[in-house]
UniProtKB/TrEMBL annotation:
UniProt record, GO biological process: DNA replication initiation
Listed Gene3D superfamilies: Winged helix-like DNA-binding domain superfamily/Winged helix DNA-binding domain (1.10.10.10)
Family: Belongs to the initiator RepB protein family.
Domain Initiator Rep protein WH1 residues, every copy: 24-164
InterPro entries for the chain: Initiator_Rep_WH1 (IPR000525), WH-like_DNA-bd_sf (IPR036388), WH_DNA-bd_sf (IPR036390)
Recorded GO MF terms: DNA-directed DNA polymerase activity
SUPFAM superfamilies (alphabetical): Winged helix' DNA-binding domain (SSF46785)
Source organism, top-level taxon: Bacteria
Pfam family, one: Rep3_C
Name of the featured protein: Replication initiation protein
Length: 321
């Protein structure tokens, strides 16, 4: 099962479980590969077909095998083997860590990277557990425009965009350490010789450049405020940050917005009753959730032989994750 990875813009969903996770710092090339993998995940759920064999996914017992054009994620005018090799090796060295009340696990973002000289095609595998995290929306999700995310210049700006996109509520990091962990910044980075956090450096090198990138191109950006140990004292120590999403309609893709407005037709009238009721009663989706993701379920009921069975499998995996 697979599909062509194209530059077509689309609204993507990313699970809150992944968006909020603590990650190692990555290059923008690595982050773009992950964006393309997210695209694979959701197109697979929608039942997208292989087109011209440019992009392929194949499920095995423990992992998902993927092929994709290197140029789909590594935007480099001088794209060469060394750049591809370094990006794949670096991403293989990064890991995703999962922990809840019942269990802990950890895996590399990709394994078994491969590149055939002159082919332009990267090959690698993704652990099934991580694949399921990317498809697990039980704790909520963020929605963002794929092409806007791919075009962002830094990994920090991409992380911020995925955090605030489609959101209206402020997000608070109560400590500087929590903020650094979310972005993958080393604990000792942006500290002075006495070990105190340099808030001015964090603002100048991380927050403000990311904010500027979103201000200039994305439908969602943010404002922020500093949390102080003593709010009544302007010279009090800064202990955290609050980021407030800000919508910029001038950067919204008009075609995607029109499609989304069209999708506001109540899902209960378009999704088959047995599927709609199962999603509401057994999976805990609200009517609003189903309206927002209606296209996914419409494609599922049209393409899959047993959509209820497939949804039940996804539900079981979500419970295990």
């Amino acid at each position: 099962m697979g599909q062509l990875i194209t530059s077509e813009n689309k609204d993507m969903m990313v699970s809150w479980m992944y968006t909020w996770s603590r990650q190692q710092e990555m290059s923008i090339h690595e982050q773009r590969i992950i964006l393309r993998i997210l695209e694979y995940c959701q197109d697979e759920v929608k039942g997208m077909k292989i087109k011209e064999n440019m992009g392929i996914i194949d499920h095995h017992k423990h992992d998902v095998y993927i092929q994709m054009p290197a140029s789909a994620a590594i935007f480099d005018s001088n794209l060469d083997f060394d750049t591809i090799k370094k990006t794949l090796e670096d991403l293989m060295g990064r890991y995703f860590e999962y922990k809840d009340k019942k269990r802990w696990w950890k895996c590399s973002f990709i394994c078994n990277p491969e590149y055939e000289y002159g082919s332009g095609i990267m090959k690698f595998s993704v652990n099934n557990k991580l694949w399921d995290v990317w498809l697990n929306f039980s704790q909520g999700y963020r929605e963002f425009e794929l092409n806007k995310a791919l075009a962002l210049p830094t990994t920090y700006s991409l992380k911020f965009y995925m955090l605030v996109s489609g959101n209206s509520k402020p997000i608070t990091f109560k400590t500087i350490d929590e903020f650094k962990q979310w972005l993958g910044i080393a604990p000792e980075q942006y500290k002075d010789k006495d070990g105190k956090d340099r808030i001015d450096n964090i603002e100048a090198r991380v927050i403000k450049p990311a904010q500027k990138a979103l201000n200039n191109s994305c439908p969602y950006t943010f404002t922020y405020s500093k949390i102080k140990a003593n709010p009544d004292n302007k010279r009090s120590k800064v202990t955290g940050f609050t980021f407030t999403p800000k919508y910029q309609p001038k950067f919204r893709d008009e075609k995607l917005e029109a499609k989304k407005l069209q999708a506001t037709v109540c899902a209960s009238f378009s999704i088959r009753p047995e599927i709609y009721n199962y999603l509401r009663q057994q999976c805990g989706f609200s009517a609003s959730d189903l309206n927002n993701t209606k296209d996914v379920w419409l494609q599922a009921q049209d393409v899959l032989d047993d959509p209820l069975g497939e949804i039940a499998i996804l539900k079981a995996k979500a419970r295990e994750a």
